[in-house]
Amino acid sequence: MKVRQIMDSIIYTGSNDLETLEIGEITCDSRRVMPGMAFVCVKGGKMDGHDHAAEAVNRGAAVVVAEHDVGLECQLVVENTRHAYAVMCANFYGNPSRKLKLIGVTGTNGKTTITNLLKHILEYAGYRVGLIGTIQNEIDDMALPAKYTTPDPAQLHALFARMAAAKCDYVVMEVSSHALDQDRVAGCQFEAAVFTNLTQDHLDYHGTMENYFQAKKKLFSLCKVGIINYDDPYGRRIMEEAPCPIRSFSVSDDVAEYTAKNITISEKGSRFAFLGTGIIARIDFPMPGMFSVSNAMAAAACAVSVGIPLDKAAVALNSCPGVCGRTQILKTDTPFTVIDDYAHTPDAIEKILAAVREFASGRIMILFGCAGNRDGRKRPLMAAAAAKGADFVILTSDNPRSEDPVKIIQEALPGFEGFETPYVVIPDRYQAIRWALENAKEGDVLLLAGKGHEDYQVLDYGTIWFDERHVVQELLEKIRTEGKKAVLPPQPEK
Predict the structure, then answer these.
(1) Average pLDDT over residues 55-82
(2) Which of 127, 162, 220, 450 is close enough to 169 for a disulfide, judged by CB 3.0 to 4.6 Å?
(3) Dihedrals φ, ψ of 290, to 5°?
């Protein structure tokens, strides 16, 4: 494709001679440059692509797109390279998103559940649907691995092109705050966008909650209608500030356009009535907790906003099998219940424990850790949420990455101050799960929080396989055959 076609709708300055050059691919990674490619200089948190422009030319880049003069004859200068990169990638792949109806979901918690519910509803309504998200990407019924919640623009538009070629009607996608801040979805037009909630997360990247909010809010300048959680204060801010039409939902407040009534929560799921002006549907949904009701409300409200009849959306929700790693009750053949969930923020831990409390007959035990190389400020807040909502806490590791797991745990420990909730510290997550399984009693609920759908753990020496659903089965078999209990490591002074 010629440079002038790739740069369509982008304002730039540079030699007109470059416009007729043929470009074979686009990248913002100088290490991937090969002859005939376009290199876009993007400034990141640690590195600036402008510093590698000359290196890209030496590798064969035919054109370099930058935000300022980098001293190259083959340069084109634009105002914002991140925005230009997204539009260039869209142009390069023939703007495939225009052939699809996009639905975006953003917020701290609930994105994965809501996108999967929407895919299920749309497929029940007879549409072919693509999905882009945290667990995996899907083209109709074909699953593809996902590295990021929202892919890099080159990968994103390549994926859109495959979905368009597969005759998908809709694409339902998680849109992360990082993606919005970095303009990865610039140029995309969404039929509808859903806002779930905003609680402390990713402040290692955004710095402040206001920056985090402003990143999320960007999605509502790219959509035809916003579906907003009225129960969240940031949701109410979006309702006031977003330029698009708004439809709101709530699990408790009649001010919202759609409201849940007659809510019943059990270990089998959630039952409620979905009410709107002149419409009502009974929903019996196989995921427990008030947050699950909110997620189901969001999916149903969004489906209605894009033209799916409510009765059809309700039948689809009632037949949904649930979502992997999201309040997932594991089959263990034990006198206690084991639940696997992705809760990895203070708010998510608080909400999942509140959900479990509604049906637990015995103790609630929570096993969790805090991620390494991420916002350390939320570590004691996660511990406090666990101590407040559970009857017993096992503090362990999540993905420590290059950080010392013991240091991460020590930074979480102050969160237990002021609570009488008993806890133990076991840094090795495998041994922590074993100890928890050996010490759970009849009627207890053991909540494994933080990993959810993930089948790996990231340690300082690399990534290892660690699928908790399989780990639990393996450990239960060991416990049955070996008959000996794990020994607690030395505990920190309390």
Answers:
(1) 96
(2) 127
(3) -65, -35
